[in-house]
Specification:
Shape of chain A: globular
CATH class of chain A: Alpha Beta
Number of strands of chain B: 15
Strand content of chain B: 25-35%
Number of helices of chain A: 6
Number of domains of chain B: 1
Helix content of chain B: 10-25%
Radius of gyration of chain A: 18 Å
CATH topology of chain A: Glutaconate Coenzyme A-transferase
Number of domains of chain A: 1
Oligomer: heterodimer
Helix content of chain A: 10-25%
Largest sheet of chain B: 10 strands, mixed
CATH architecture of chain B: 3-Layer(aba) Sandwich
Order of helices and strands of chain A: HEHEHEHEHEEEEEHEE
Shape of chain B: globular
Structural class of chain A: alpha/beta
Chain lengths: 222, 216
């Protein structure tokens, strides 16, 4: 069996300048901080980051933004990280805002082999600009397209050596979705266990989606 | 006079029924949970990934893996469930949420809503708001009637829309307004104000309900 367990440095080695990266987490709860920290140290630039939000100062993807490594941010909410506004106004970073449900479904759709989906969200708003509107049963919907990435950075709580992963409470959020929608999926997890130790009923992300496992993700200290 | 936020939150709470599934926005709407009768079984959804949201976590007893959509440490009630963000918004868009309570920058007489952006000033993003207001069965806007005297309840929103024709009810410290095909209907009034004062604080024309009653 292929050994998927790597060090943080080995895990992020393939991530180069200009990479498109999905990052799990909601206001950084469920974001793999050790992978973000390693990317900051590595100093890769011109990244496209796809994440629910812009994190907040000192946590999550905010650390990459503060280090000026992000060229494009695709997110639903950036209000808790003032640095996003600063870099957006200066033109340093492009920010593409997507309704949260649409962002989640675009990622899920990519991972599920869909060519797009129809949503009532955003009809009649600036979100609809440039998008096809279809009327089904007398109701208008926007055609939204799938969203893929080169890499997905996932935060697991317990992961076995195949990559089967479970998530604790609200750390789950976008993690199981991004794990299906990227070329290379890296899971940073709190605890690595032997195959068979996780009850199959509790596995949320199957190991078939996981390419690389990194141990040592720590619970955030309040 | 009682605290403005408390007046609004208490009144909104009366709209929620035993057995409802409810999503409360951040800030004032979160306070609504404090005024629901104790014998009611209301299930609160947190769009970051669970049903069965409980109270805020006690200081010193926070669980770092358990936050609400405002990144505050919270608890869950017995019978709760966690899920991913696609499932969460499937629940929302799919019409499985009975009511959502949100604040707003502007609302207009057609029930159009503008609450996510002030171009050039504030661009926090829409988060889950656009999905919530098109998906929830009942959309209640809980907000102060004006912004320091500046109208927020308008003939037509001037800020970019969050969604069109979605608002069912507006609850402020002055009044309760229902959005109808004919326009905004004043159904309840805080007895501390006159109908004339509510009219002055509202840009949109008001239809006065023949059954107008006190909101307190």
């Amino acid at each position: 069996m292929k050994n998927k367990i790597k060090t943080v440095e080995e895990a992020i080695e393939p991530i180069k300048d200009g990479a498109i990266i999905m990052v799990g987490g909601f206001m950084a709860t469920g974001t793999p901080e050790i992978l973000i920290d390693a990317l900051v140290v590595k100093g890769v630039k011109n990244l496209t980051i796809i994440c629910n939000d812009g994190g907040y100062p000192g946590r999550g993807v905010a650390k990459l933004i503060s280090a000026h490594q992000v060229k494009t941010l695709i997110a639903s909410h950036v209000g808790l990280n003032p640095e996003v506004g600063t870099q957006m106004v200066s033109g340093e970073m492009e920010v593409i805002l997507v309704p949260q449900g649409t962002l989640a479904e675009r990622i899920r759709g990519a991972g599920a082999g869909l060519g797009g989906f129809l949503t009532p969200t955003g009809v009649g708003t600036i979100v609809a600009e440039g998008k096809q509107v279809l009327t089904i049963g007398g109701k208008d919907y926007l055609l939204e397209l799938p969203l893929k990435a080169d890499f997905a950075l996932v935060r697991g709580t317990v992961t076995d050596k195949k990559g089967n992963t479970c998530y604790s409470k609200s750390t789950r959020n976008f993690n199981p979705l991004i794990a299906t929608a990227a070329e290379m999926v890296i899971v940073a997890t709190e605890k690595i266990v032997e195959i068979g130790e996780i009850d199959p009923e509790h596995v949320v992300t199957s190991g078939i989606f996981v390419d690389v496992i990194v141990g040592g993700e720590k619970p955030w200290q309040i | 006079m009682a605290d403005i936020k408390e007046i609004i939150a208490r009144r909104v709470a009366k709209e929620l029924k035993d057995g409802d599934v409810v999503n409360l926005g951040i800030g004032l709407p979160t306070m609504v949970a404090n005024y629901i009768p104790h014998d009611y079984d209301v299930t609160f959804q947190s769009e970051n990934g669970f049903l069965g949201l409980g109270t805020a976590a006690e200081k010193g007893k926070e669980d770092i893996d358990l936050v609400n959509a405002g990144a505050q440490y919270v608890t869950v009630k017995p019978g709760a469930m966690f899920f991913d963000s696609a499932t969460s918004f499937g629940i929302i868009r799919g019409g499985h949420v009975d009511a959502t309570v949100l604040g707003s920058l502007q609302v207009d007489q057609e029930g159009n809503l503008a609450n996510w952006i002030i171009p050039g000033v504030m661009l926090p993003g829409m988060g889950g708001a656009m999905d919530l207001v098109v998906g929830a069965k009942k959309v209640i806007i809980a907000m102060q009637h004006t912004n320091k005297g500046q109208h927020k309840i308008l003939k037509r929103c001037t800020l970019p829309f969050t969604a069109l024709k979605v608002v069912d009810m507006i609850v402020t410290e002055m009044a309760v307004l229902e959005v109808t095909e004919m326009g905004l209907v004043l159904t309840e009034i805080n007895p501390e104000y006159t109908v004339e004062q509510v009219r002055e604080a509202t840009e949109a024309p008001l239809i006065i309900s023949p059954h107008l009653k006190d909101m307190i």
